Every structure is written in structure tokens, then in C-alpha cells.
Amino acid sequence: MTMVSVIIPTFNRARMVTRAISSVLYQTTGDFEIIVVDDGSSDATPSVLKQFNERVISLTHPRNMGVSAARNTGIRAASSPLIAFLDSDDYWLPKKLAVQTAFFHQHPDAVACQTEEYWIRHGRRVNPRKRHRKPSGDIFEPSLRLCLVSPSAVLLKRSLIDEVGPFDETLPACEDYDLWLRISSKYPVHLIEEYLVVKVGGHGDQLSNSIMGLDRFRIRALEKLILKGGLQKEQQEAAFEELSRKCRIYGHGCIKRGKKSEGEDYLGLPQKVRIILNQE
Question: Rounded CA gap, 112 and 83, in Å?
Fold first, then answer.
């Protein structure tokens, strides 16, 4: 059994997935398996994956089912006690896995850690804004506003995913925001302050560029989290406050765009959630 299962979902990124896989093969530790899930690609991805032969476990979806389904397929196929994700447009620096596995050996009670990352946009390095800076430890409340965990930077114990559940396949976007909130409401997420990931953005097929109104999926994630129960009182109030803020902003935005009924539904959602909570 290998120590880490590296799961790479991909869709029509033949050139970029080659770079992603190669960055795993160049790791200073070899104690891993690579699982690439081709989510119904129609480009040269299948032939590219064949070139890696037995170095890669290649799985295929007959049609495009979304990144959550692809990651979950990889999780089900994984045989290691630690799970790492790598988006096919990103890549790792050589010590990434060695540093993170050493962290778990040194902190046996930890269940999740991530590293710092370089951001590349349109071929140039950019600095994240202050609000994107990654916290460490109890990250639940700061993560309510926006996603502060990068899939390509995280390493998780497999038992953690078994406990909190996999990615939500009903969410076409913000599926990572949803999972990190479920995790951080229960456990600390530790930050290793080394830059070991290169996160590449600015290309047209990114979900953030192709799907409008992303906050509606964050709203759905918050609604689910609150109604499922299990949050501490302070966590529940913080989550409800953020739900109300997002619903207010998104609802008024809908009304301004002429979608009055949809906007009113979002504006009324927090009160509906509060009524359900009071009935339980």
C-alpha cells in the first residue's frame, strides 16, 4: 500500500494534465499512486494518459459529470491512508508530498493540512489579496466568507472523507467550499508555510469563468450545513450571519437584473432557515 493517493480530475486538458502528472512523478518521495479521472474528454487526453502506462491509474467517465463526480470516483478507487488532490491545470513543486507526509508523521492527531501556493494568472505571477491569505488551525469562521483551502494544496486523511462525506455532486461549483466547511467545523486545517504548489488561472474553461452567480452555490452549501445540525452554537450563528449576508447581496442583485421572484426567494431564505431551526 502506498502512503498517498493523488487524485487528478481532468476534462479536455491534454496538455495541462501532462504537466500536472509529471509534477507528481518528479516528487522527492515515491510513496504514492496517481489516479487520473478523465471526465469525458473529447480531446487528446485519452492518448496522453496512455503514454504514462503503469505509472498512472487511468479511469474514465463516459460523459462529462463534473469535477465533484470525478474526484469522488478517484476517492473510491484510492487505496492509501492519505488523499491529495491536484487540479489538472495546476502543478506541484518537488518537495510537496514529502513535506506534507512528514507533517503528518510529526503531528499524528492532524487530519488535514495545506501548503502555500504561487498564483499564476495569464502567464504572470500575481499576489493574492489580503482576504485570500490562508489561516491555520481553526479556520471555520474565516472560511464562511470565501474558500480558503486550495484542493491542489491540501492533504487529508482518508478517514476524514469517510467521516464527513465526499464532494457534493449536486453542486456544479463551490463544491470545495462546501467540503472545507464540513471539515473545518469539526477539525483544524493546518497551514504549512512553504510555497509548494503553482496554481494556474486565467484560462477560459475555469469554473469561475464559465458559471455565473457562484454565490448561489455557497448559499446552498451554508443552508445545508446549518440545517444538518452538529455545529456548535457559535459556529451556527456565524454561519447564519454569513448566509443572511450572501442572501441579501445575491437577492438584491437578482432584483436589479429583473429577476424579482428569484431575488425575493433569496431574501426570504434566512427567515425560512431560522423557522426550521426553531422547530427542531
Answer: 10
Beta strands 32-38 and 4-10, pairing class:
parallel
Amino acid at 31: D
* 3-state secondary structure at position 249: helix
Query: d(Cα 142, Cα 157) in Å, to the nearest integer?
Result: 22
Q: Is the pTM of this model over 0.70?
A: yes
Cell 451554508 sits on residue: 222
Burial class (CB in 10 A: 0-12, 13-18, 19+), 8: buried
CA angle 176, 179, 184 (to 5 degrees): 120
Report the Cα 95 to chain-centroid distance in Å. 21
Is the Cβ–Cβ distance between 264 and 256 less than 8 Å? no
Kindly state the DSSP code that residue 189 receives in the 8-state scheme: B
Mean pLDDT of each 10-residue bin along the chain, 280 residues long: 95 95 96 97 94 94 95 97 97 98 97 97 87 93 95 97 96 95 98 97 62 89 95 96 97 96 96 88
> Hey, what's the cell of 133?
491569505
Buried b (16+ CB within 10 A) or exposed e, 233-262: eebbebbbebbbbbbeebbeebeeeeeeeb
